[in-house]
């Protein structure tokens, strides 16, 4: 909070009058000075003092100046709401100001209350009323509410406004209603607005349908429509997702021809495209051709090298970034840290961890989670615990990474403890969180706790268990010796073709020497695969051996040799300091 002297308002009035209107100081109305003063305010405390001055001078009763005060106050939406709630007869501009304020605030759902209040006043709505409310619907994924507003748009005739239609297109895509979005787009009589096409393009990319995005772009080209850098960026993202370099090269050529390569968004998309196609060196050439590089461009190239397995090059770029006095952010390191979780890269991971410490980077939810995940997978559990403890903000992914880390290291009790602590701190677990804790229970042999978590997942949180969750339960029951219970569970699953659960059951049959069930499971696996799998045959032969049926074991191993079923050889790697 910034505290300012009581004379600040008067000084500001005098400053604006003398410096901006020297010849007309005595003739400019006071409200004009006040409007300029409000526009210069950067803190809520300053607006509060201007508000006080308005109350004293009576300008708070003038609708025009009051509207300007309200518009300046939406940076603190609660303060703006306190002003709005004391206005006897707010006008349309005031309602729209509150709609816009809530649509960009942490409480977008409140925009629906304002919208209903506006309709209750029977005022004539304008396009800004709809655009802000639809933005709030998009942020809240309020599909039914948005559809209702769409109906109001049609009945009021505002569907003719291109900006309203674009807001509707964006809303339907965010809510995953591709069919509704495309139907709305098809209803546009003259599809000449490039923003509408761009909205449709970005929508298809958000919905992971890059093929549809490229088809849409071809349609744009056939119609002879002019496209901008936003269009090119979206299409490059689609081509990048497809890994289609043949489709990307002509786009790159067009960017050079049109001078788009100097645009940072286009350059970033080009680098990402080449990185996804495995030609990161071509992406680096584009990087060096950009005169003014921002942190996003640096991050894209660093991440590109990391995803192509060139971790040392990523690390060198990070040092070059520091030399160029470009301050990295959490996104600069997340991709690199994730790549360090791969076998044989723990040394680079430790270097990144040290870099974060040296630069005193804030451990936000994104960076902290990436470090916790990397340290756990590389075997540095204590470092992961230390990072997790120092994170000021933890989201569901942060908690899940720590639970998974404890589970991987065989500390099931600690994984359960962290899960309960997560609930106590008010963070709602996800389906992945339950998968992590079930996996920990499975490896820790905690059958009762595992069953309890599955029940909690369904009854308290309303999740429907997926094959992966049932797979953990089958493994858990099998490890505990409840083979028939595990068999009954896997038979009741809606998906019959999942091999993971059946193979986990077969492995449990080997541990307990249950030949009869093992043979039944082996036959089912043969039906699923429609061919012999070496892992299944070896597991069954081991079951014979443990059960003391050595002739059957010898016979099964002989069949494996005769059928030339080769199990993929495992390998180990040791990372050495050079």
In oligomeric terms, what are we looking at? single chain
Distance between the termini: 52 Å
Report the strand count. Answer: 0
Report the uncertain regions.
1-28
Task: Tell me, briefly, the overall form.
Answer: globular
Number of helix segments? Answer: 33
Largest sheet: none
| Fraction in helix | over 70%
Give the class from helix and strand content and strand pairing.
Answer: mainly alpha
Strand portion: under 5%
pLDDT averaged over residues: 85
Report Rg.
31 Å
Write the layout of secondary structure elements.
Layout: H1 8-20, H2 30-40, H3 44-57, H4 63-73, H5 77-84, H6 92-103, H7 110-120, H8 127-140, H9 143-156, H10 162-174, H11 178-186, H12 194-206, H13 210-222, H14 229-242, H15 245-258, H16 264-276, H17 280-289, H18 295-307, H19 311-323, H20 330-340, H21 346-358, H22 365-377, H23 381-390, H24 396-408, H25 412-424, H26 431-444, H27 447-459, H28 467-479, H29 483-491, H30 499-512, H31 515-529, H32 534-546, H33 550-562
Helix pairs in contact: 1-2, 2-4, 4-5, 5-6, 6-7, 6-8, 8-9, 8-10, 9-10, 10-11, 10-12, 11-12, 12-13, 12-14, 13-14, 14-15, 14-16, 15-16, 16-17, 16-18, 17-18, 18-19, 18-20, 19-20, 20-21, 20-22, 22-23, 22-24, 23-24, 24-25, 24-26, 25-26, 26-27, 26-28, 27-28, 28-29, 28-30, 29-30, 30-31, 30-32, ...
């Amino acid at each position: 909070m910034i505290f300012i002297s009581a004379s600040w308002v008067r000084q500001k009035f005098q400053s604006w009058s003398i410096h901006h209107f020297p010849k007309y100081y005595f003739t400019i109305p006071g409200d004009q000075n006040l409007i300029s003063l409000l526009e210069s305010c950067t803190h809520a405390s300053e607006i509060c003092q201007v508000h006080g001055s308005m109350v004293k001078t009576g300008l708070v009763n003038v609708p025009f100046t009051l509207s300007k005060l309200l518009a300046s106050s939406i940076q603190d939406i609660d303060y703006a709401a306190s002003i709005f709630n004391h206005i006897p007869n707010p006008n349309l501009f005031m309602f729209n100001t509150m709609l816009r304020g809530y649509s960009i605030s942490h409480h977008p759902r409140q925009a629906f209350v304002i919208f209903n209040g506006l309709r209750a006043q029977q005022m004539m709505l304008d396009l800004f009323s709809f655009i802000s409310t639809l933005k709030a619907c998009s942020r809240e994924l309020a599909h039914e509410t948005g559809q209702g507003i769409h109906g109001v748009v049609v009945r009021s005739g505002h569907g003719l406004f291109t900006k309203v239609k674009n807001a509707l297109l964006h809303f339907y895509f965010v809510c995953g209603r591709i069919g509704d979005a495309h139907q709305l787009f098809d209803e546009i009589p003259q599809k000449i607005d490039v923003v509408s096409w761009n909205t449709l393009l970005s929508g298809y990319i958000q919905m992971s349908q890059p093929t549809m995005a490229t088809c849409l772009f071809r349609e744009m080209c056939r119609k002879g429509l002019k496209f901008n850098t936003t269009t090119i960026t979206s299409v490059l993202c689609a081509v990048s997702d497809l890994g289609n370099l043949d489709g990307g090269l002509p786009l790159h050529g067009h960017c050079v021809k049109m001078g788009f390569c100097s645009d940072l968004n286009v350059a970033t998309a080009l680098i990402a495209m080449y990185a996804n196609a495995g030609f990161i060196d071509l992406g680096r050439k584009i990087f060096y051709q950009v005169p003014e590089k921002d942190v996003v461009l640096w991050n894209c190239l660093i991440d590109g090298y990391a995803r192509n397995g060139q971790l040392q090059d990523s690390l060198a770029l990070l040092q070059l970034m520091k030399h160029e006095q470009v301050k990295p952010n959490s996104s600069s390191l997340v991709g690199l840290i994730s790549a360090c979780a791969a076998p044989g890269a723990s040394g680079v991971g430790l270097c990144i961890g040290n870099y974060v410490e040296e630069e005193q980077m804030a451990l936000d939810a994104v960076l902290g989670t990436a470090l916790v995940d990397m340290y756990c997978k590389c075997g540095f559990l204590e470092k992961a615990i230390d990072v997790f403890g120092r994170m000021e903000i933890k989201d569901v992914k942060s908690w899940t990474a720590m639970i998974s880390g404890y589970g991987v290291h065989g500390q099931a009790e600690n994984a359960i403890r962290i899960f309960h602590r997560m609930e106590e701190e008010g963070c709602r677990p996800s389906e992945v969180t339950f998968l992590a804790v079930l996996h920990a229970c499975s490896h820790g042999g905690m059958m009762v706790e595992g069953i309890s978590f599955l029940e909690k997942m369904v009854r308290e949180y309303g999740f429907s268990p997926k094959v992966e969750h049932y797979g953990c339960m089958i493994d858990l029951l099998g490890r505990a010796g409840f083979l028939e219970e595990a068999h009954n569970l896997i038979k009741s699953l809606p998906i019959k073709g999942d091999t993971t659960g059946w193979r986990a059951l077969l492995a449990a049959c080997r541990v307990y020497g249950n030949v009869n069930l093992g043979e039944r499971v082996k036959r089912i696996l043969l039906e699923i695969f429609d061919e012999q799998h070496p892992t299944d045959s070896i597991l069954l032969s081991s079951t014979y051996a443990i059960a003391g049926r050595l002739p059957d074991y010898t016979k099964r191993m002989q069949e494996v040799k005769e059928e030339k079923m080769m199990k993929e050889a495992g390998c180990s790697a040791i990372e050495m300091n050079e």
